[in-house]
Every structure is written in C-alpha cells, then in structure tokens.
Amino acid sequence: MAPISNDTGKAETMDILFMTSCGSEGLPGAKGDDITEKAASGADGREIKKFLKKVYQPAENGTDGIDAGPAQKGSPGQPGDPGGSCGSLILEVKELICGTQLTIMADGADGGRGGHGGDGGRGGAGGDGGKQLEKYQDQYPEARGGRGGRGGDGADGGDGGPGGNGGTVTVRYGTSNLSDPVFVSAGAGQGGPGGNGGNPGPGGAGGKDGVREGAEPSYGPEGPAGAGGGSGSMGSPGDSGNIFIEQTEELR
User: Which CA distances in Å does 93 have to 1, 114, 123, 170, 171?
Assistant: First the structure.
C-alpha cells in the first residue's frame, strides 16, 4: 500500500499491484490439412460373354484397391508460437509504507499449443468381380470382389511453443513499516502442449462379388486402416527471472 491524502487531509492507504510488461501467451499452431482424396480403385474383373477356341473363359476376380501412399497422408500440425518474455522493472523509493505486501508480477507467458495433425485419406476401393455366364454358374465359382486398399496415415501433431522468460525486477527502498514489504513473482512460462496426431485414414471398400442374378450381394474384404499420427512434443519451459530486493541506507 502507498499513502495518499483525502479531502480531510488525513493519510489513507490503497492497495497497489505492479504488473510489468509481460508477454502474451503464444498462439496455437495451425492444424494440418485432412486428406479427402482416396487412392485409386482396383480394376473390375473381366466378364467373358464369348468362347475362346470353343473353351469357356470364366469371369475374373476384381483386383485389389491401391494402398494409400504419400499423397493420402495428412499434413503435419504446425508448432505453437513461443510465449512472450517479461520485461524488466526497477523501483526505487525512499519510504515504502504498506498495509500489506506490495505485489509485483513479472512472469513469462506460456507457449502456444501445437497444431493437430491432419487425418489420412481413404484407401482405394477393390474392383468388382465379373459375372459368370448363367450356363456356367454351377461349374465355376463366383468371381470375387477385390480387397480394399490400406488407408493413409495420419500426420504428427506439431510441437508446443516454448514458454517465455520471467522478467528482472529490482526493488530498492530506504525504510518501510513492514519487515517484508515486497512480494515478487518472476516465474518461467510453461511450454505449450503438443498437438494430437491425425486420425488414420480408413481402408478402401471391398469390391462387389460377381453373384448370380437375384442373389444377396456380397463384397470383398475392406482394406485395413492406416496408422494414426504421433502427438507433438511439449514445448520447453522458459527461464525464471531475476529478483533483487534491497533495503539500503542510500535512500533513507
């Protein structure tokens, strides 16, 4: 508290809180792009409607869908911005008259969160199986639809931003009515948390089996999902500030 005067001329006190020019909290990193484009589909199986040298050529299975590649991998999340560091404060007074401790805040700001990784794209769909000629449906098995391709991988999350540094605070005073008149906080800002990894892309759909007319439709196996992205690392903390509090004869 510091002394002031009111209209009666009597001395009163009021609370004072010093806030140094602390930096702002770091902004979160941008999220990576999700991939909506899927891998190429497999080719449909051949449907033969004629004979080759009087020998029936059975319909073929559909080919498997193409596994997702680099084009179907999500984009990585961007790192979080660093937290702002605090400035410096020098306070010199002859008399420090307080009802309670004078509080000075000079903490560094926290780093921003890392951006989340982008999701992977879908694997290619399997090709449809061809249909046998009705006359040979009992002689030859149904052509199967192809397996779906593997889904794309999710991208890694971005790293958290580093925390800001605490400020340097110097307080020098001559006399005070309190034995411990000043409290100073100049802590380090915490590193921002890492972003979450992107979701794995789903596997491609299986191709349609070449079933006979009127039969219940069936399909080839769905492709496996891709791998999920890893989480980003937590940002490093800032450095604690320096605090100097001195009662000196020079200011009495």
Answer: 13, 44, 71, 11, 8
